[in-house]
Structure formats: structure tokens, C-alpha cells
Design brief:
It is built from 17 helices and 14 strands. It is α/β, with parallel strands linked by helices.
């Protein structure tokens, strides 16, 4: 059901050579880019008419309008299962608790007497948030996108989710109910690259945004790449991933359950166990079969995900080697199930989010830990962070110098300007001091 990669016996290679030995899903955004390009430009030129046409083509629904009416949001919230509402409210409360503490304050540094640099943090003016709606419904993604944007102080928030034929062309009612709970009333029935293009270019109904965030399929990732530079993006999210760093103290029932929990997202989802214990590897392999048989989405998602090239049990000589492997892999979600798990987790450098010990499964982070589940995939955790309040803030430096403070350093500025053969830069200072710069 799941393959093995045995890295025992020899010294582990470094850098890219080690990454090349590890499992990873094929996810060719560049190839998808060529397919989304004409779609994006069609939305640019035809606006809402193109959105309606693509909803018919891709989602099998005939829309009368793309924007979700206010009454549909209210009805979705009124009809929400009370247990689901309570769970969403708790998810929102915990996410607000964590994200509110991330808000940065302006900070002023006195460089010299009379010379200061202040960094202030300004929220993006308008964002477009995406909540997937393909194989599953993700109200949790509404929470994870909206809360940090709100806590950052974003003034204008729009959200898109694919239209559903089952619900008369509206996004899934649980998505709409989550929007209503969060006070988001600008919601659009648009999916994939079409939604990203709507946000980037704007239409008759939707004003253009400054930034688009949220997970999605390869078409969403390709559209984000297409618009990079025109708008800000969070990340080009690929298939979801879990890596588990474990030793012989880990419970194979827990490890198997957690691998399966990610595999049920998508047939390209990655489930990777890194361990120095042959006994644990065998026990997890034995445990997978009955747990998979007892769950849902087996043939269309879980089995192909676990059997795919992106999933494996990786055997290493030691936890030190295991640490090197998980850092090279840079998992979206990394569980550490070892003796002294907190100490090993503290040494990890590359992961979207780290889950420590047996009582912090990835599923907790997906919904109610308070952390954000919009995380870098495909090894991007080595250079990128998950979605947070900081994602929606821009740092702006404010430079304030007096005449005396400028005079003190003017000769250095002129010298550097002349070294770069930019004499007009130096002249800008000379003009302030009667063309005779102090110190020269």
C-alpha cells in the first residue's frame, strides 16, 4: 500500500542530492500556466459574461449572477447545523486569539541624534480570498483566510468559492454560513483560475484586489503564478503533505491514522513517515490496511495517495539523520512523535507547521489549534511561511532627518554616489548645502 525508501547504511547526501531521494508529487504548474493564460485573458476582456460561461463549462451550472445575494448568506447561516456552527465559532475564536497577537506595531529607531527611521505596518487595502470546493467543502479555509486578513485590518475583503450544481449554482452552504459568521458579505460563485482572474482584473461586479490568498488545485496555483507581479499572492499551493518524524516510542495506530488523514484529501496528497525504527515501520504498514478499509474515500483518494510516488516510509539510521531528511523535505505539516518530541521539534528548520507529540495531530491544526492551515507545500517551507497577519501587512520605512543629522553623513552619501557613477545623487545633497558638502 505504501512504498519504502531505505536510506540506512551510507552517509546522507547534502542539499539537492538528498531532496532528490525523497518522495514528491508531480505538480507541473508551468504546463498548467499555458492552459490558464487564455482563460485569464478572456475574463479580462469579457468580465462577468466569461465567468458565467466558464461556470457552465467547468462546474455544470448556469448562473444568473456571480455575486452571492445577501439573503443566500443569511439563509445558509440560519440553516447551519448547530453543532457545525458551534465548531466553526470555536475555530474562529481560537484563530483570532492566535492571529491577534501577531499584529506588529510601528517601531522607531534613532540612528543618530536628529535622524530616525520608523517602520510602520499598513494593511493591504483589498484582498480576494479563495476557498476550494472540489472534492470536499472547506469552511475551515474560509476561517483561515478571513481571520488573519481581518486581524491585519484589511478594509475590503471578498471571497470566492466554486458554484455547486447541487445548490443552484451557489457555493456550498457551509462555505456561505462561515462567511456570514465572519461578517464577510462580498462572496462570489467562481472557482479555480476563473476566480483568481476575476480578483486580479476585476469585473463589472467585482473590484480588482491587491492580493489573492487561499489554497486550491493546480489551476489556482497556475493562475497565481500568472498574476504574480500584478497582485500579491500567498503561495502556489500544491498537493497537501504530511511528514511524521518518529522513533520506536511512537504509537503505530496514531501514525497510520495521521498518514491516512492527509491521504483522504486528494490522490496526489503526500504521506511520509521518517523513522529509525524498523519495528515501527512494519507496525505502521500493518496498521494501514484495516484503518483504510474502515474509512471513506478509499479508492478515489486514499489508496492512490498512499501508493503514489509522493508517499513512502523512509528508513534512516538515527533521529539525527531523520532530522536532516525532514529538513530537506520541508513538509507542509510535520508531526514529531518521538521521545522528547519538543526538543526534536525545536531543532527543525523547514516545515510549514510543526505538531509536537502524540496529542497534537495535524487534524487539530486543520480546525481548532488556533494556528493557520494555509501553509507552503512542495518544499517551499524552506523559504516561505504559512498565512498569517503578516501576509496582509506591508512594512513602510519613514525617514526623518534634521539638517544637522544630514550634514553629518552627507560626505559619505556623496562619496558613494560618485563611486556608483551617479553624480546627480550627490548633487541632491550638495544643493541643500550651497554645493559645498560638509566633511568634503
Amino acid at each position: 500500500m505504501i512504498s519504502r525508501i531505505d536510506l540506512r547504511g551510507d552517509a546522507l547526501p547534502e542539499g539537492a542530492a538528498l531532496r532528490d531521494l525523497l518522495p514528491r508529487a508531480e505538480f507541473d504548474v508551468e504546463a498548467a500556466l499555458e492552459k490558464v493564460r487564455p482563460i485569464c485573458e478572456d475574463v479580462h476582456h469579457r468580465g462577468t459574461a466569461a465567468l458565467i460561461e466558464y461556470a457552465q463549462k467547468f462546474d455544470g451550472v448556469r448562473l444568473e449572477q456571480v455575486r452571492v445575494p445577501a439573503e443566500a448568506l443569511a439563509e445558509a447561516l440560519a440553516g447551519l447545523d448547530p453543532k457545525v456552527r458551534a465548531a466553526l465559532e470555536e475555530s474562529i475564536r481560537r484563530a483570532r486569539t492566535v492571529h491577534r497577537s501577531q499584529r506588529r506595531s510601528a517601531h522607531t529607531t534613532q540612528v543618530v541624534p536628529g535622524g530616525t527611521v520608523t517602520e510602520k505596518w499598513v494593511p493591504v487595502e483589498r484582498v480576494g480570498l479563495y476557498a476550494p470546493g472540489g472534492r470536499s467543502v472547506y469552511p475551515s479555509s474560509v476561517v483561515m483566510n478571513v481571520v488573519p486578513a481581518q486581524e491585519a485590518g484589511v478594509g475590503s475583503i471578498a471571497l470566492a468559492s466554486p458554484p455547486q450544481a447541487e445548490f443552484g449554482g451557489l457555493p456550498h452552504p457551509t462555505i456561505l454560513a462561515a462567511c456570514a459568521l465572519l461578517g464577510v458579505d462580498e462572496v462570489y460563485a467562481a472557482g479555480g483560475a476563473v476566480a483568481v482572474a476575476m480578483f486580479a482584473y476585476g469585473t463589472e461586479d467585482c473590484l480588482p484586489v491587491n492580493m489573492v490568498t487561499g489554497p486550491g488545485n493546480i489551476w489556482v496555483a497556475a493562475a497565481k503564478r500568472y498574476f504574480t507581479g500584478k497582485i500579491g499572492i500567498d503561495t502556489e499551493a500544491g498537493p497537501t503533505e504530511i511528514a511524521v518524524l518518529a522513533d520506536g516510542t511512537a504509537d503505530p495506530v496514531h501514525v497510520a491514522a495521521d498518514l491516512i488523514s492527509q491521504a483522504e484529501h486528494d490522490p496526489l496528497a503526500a504521506a511520509v513517515l521518517v523513522t529509525d525504527s524498523e519495528d515501527l515501520a512494519a507496525a505502521v504498514e500493518k496498521e494501514l490496511a484495516p484503518q483504510v478499509a474502515a474509512t471513506k474515500h478509499v479508492e478515489d483518494r486514499i489508496r492512490p495517495a498512499l501508493a503514489g510516488r509522493q508517499s513512502a516510509i523512509v528508513l534512516v539510521d538515527s533521529l539525527e539523520d531523520g532530522l536532516k531528511v525532514v529538513d530537506a523535505y520541508g513538509a507542509e505539516h510535520l508531526e514529531v512523535q518521538t521521545a522528547d518530541a519538543a526538543a526534536w521539534a525545536a531543532r527543525v528548520r523547514n516545515a510549514g507547521a510543526i505538531f509536537v507529540g502524540p496529542w497534537a495531530p495535524v487534524s487539530l491544526g486543520d480546525y481548532c489549534a488556533g494556528s493557520n492551515h494555509v501553509l507552503p507545500t512542495g518544499g517551499c517551507a524552506c523559504h516561505s511561511s504559512g498565512l498569517s497577519v503578516q501576509s496582509f501587512l506591508r512594512g513602510i520605512h519613514i525617514v526623518d532627518y534634521t539638517r544637522d543629522a544630514l550634514a553629518e553623513v552627507a560626505h559619505h552619501v556623496v562619496t558613494l554616489a560618485e563611486a556608483e557613477d551617479l553624480p546627480a545623487h550627490g548633487a541632491a545633497l550638495k544643493a541643500r548645502f550651497g554645493w559645498k558638502v560638509p566633511g568634503q
